[in-house]
């Protein structure tokens, strides 16, 4: 079972949207996928209520901080991929966000291209390093064209985490797809954003397949 945590201190970076679209892509080949809604706003749970398709499964935390319990249930159920969608906020030690980061095989941090978004990434990067887990950055909901995206990419590279070569542009159709309980690929297969989400998922799978989750964890320090 591979655990992918979507985390970003700043709100509005499209964490839930990214979790949904990656989760649907992960299950497209038949792999059992569970999306776990760790946010009190219950965005994924609300999306599931209007979704006609039975998969991917959407689960909620059994209790605040119950990340480990829900992952044990996912493992027992035979999940191949689990995507943890975390709330915005400071990833303080012991918080749901920190627990989700610590449990991840890979942390995916979405970021918009704005100055405040880039500055806010610092806290999440620090939490990833504290947990000694691999992390990557995905430019998400950014302008479809212009130098601002490449400028943001250059700034984010400075955090020392891999930045996905494909940026996901802001598209109105993404919002409409969520209203229908669908991913963008299901709602509008010809939309340009479908290829962007697919490229991001392929890149994430490549990281997982190359064993980054296991090989890049530094050895624990002797106490």
Task: Present the secondary structure layout.
Blueprint: E1 2-6, H1 15-27, E2 33-37, H2 43-49, E3 57-60, H3 67-76, E4 81-85, H4 96-102, E5 106-111, H5 115-131, E6 135-142, H6 147-157, E7 168-169, H7 172-179, H8 184-187, H9 192-209, H10 212-215
Parallel strand pairs: 1-4, 1-5, 2-3, 2-4, 5-6, 6-7
Helix pairs in contact: 1-9
Give an overview in words.
The protein is of the alpha/beta class and 223 residues long. It has one domain (2-214): P-loop containing nucleotide triphosphate hydrolases (Rossmann fold, 3-Layer(aba) Sandwich), CATH 3.40.50. 44% of the residues lie in helices and 16% in strands. It has helices spanning 15-27, 43-49, 67-76, 96-102, 115-131, 147-157, 172-179, 184-187, 192-209, 212-215; strands spanning 2-6, 33-37, 57-60, 81-85, 106-111, 135-142, 168-169. The chain has a 7-stranded parallel sheet, sandwiched between helices. Helix 1 (15-27) packs across helix 9 (192-209).
Structure, briefly:
Residues 4-146 form the CobQ/CobB/MinD/ParA nucleotide binding domain. It holds the Pfam family CbiA. It contains 10 helices and 7 strands.
Keywords summarizing the entry:
7 strands, single chain, alpha/beta, disordered C terminus
């Amino acid at each position: 079972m591979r655990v992918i945590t979507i985390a970003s201190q700043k709100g509005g970076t499209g964490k839930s949207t990214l979790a949904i679209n990656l989760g649907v892509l992960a299950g497209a080949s038949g792999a059992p996928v569970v999306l776990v809604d760790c946010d009190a706003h219950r965005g994924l749970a609300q999306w599931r209520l209007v979704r006609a398709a039975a998969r991917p499964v959407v689960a909620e935390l059994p209790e605040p901080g119950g990340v480990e319990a829900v992952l044990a249930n996912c493992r027992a159920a035979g999940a191949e991929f689990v995507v943890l969608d975390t709330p915005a906020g400071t990833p303080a030690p012991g918080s749901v966000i920190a627990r989700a980061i610590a449990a991840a095989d890979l942390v995916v941090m979405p970021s918009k291209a704005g100055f405040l978004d880039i500055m806010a990434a610092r806290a999440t990067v620090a939490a990833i390093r504290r947990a000694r887990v691999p992390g990557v950055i995905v430019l998400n909901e950014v302008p479809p064209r212009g130098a601002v995206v490449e400028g943001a990419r250059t700034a984010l590279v400075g955090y020392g985490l891999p930045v996905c070569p494909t940026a996901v542009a802001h598209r109105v159709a993404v919002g409409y797809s969520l209203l229908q309980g669908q991913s963008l690929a299901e709602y509008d297969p010809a939309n340009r954003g479908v290829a962007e989400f697919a490229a991001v998922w392929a890149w994430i799978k490549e990281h997982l397949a190359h064993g980054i989750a296991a090989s890049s964890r530094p050895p624990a320090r002797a106490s």
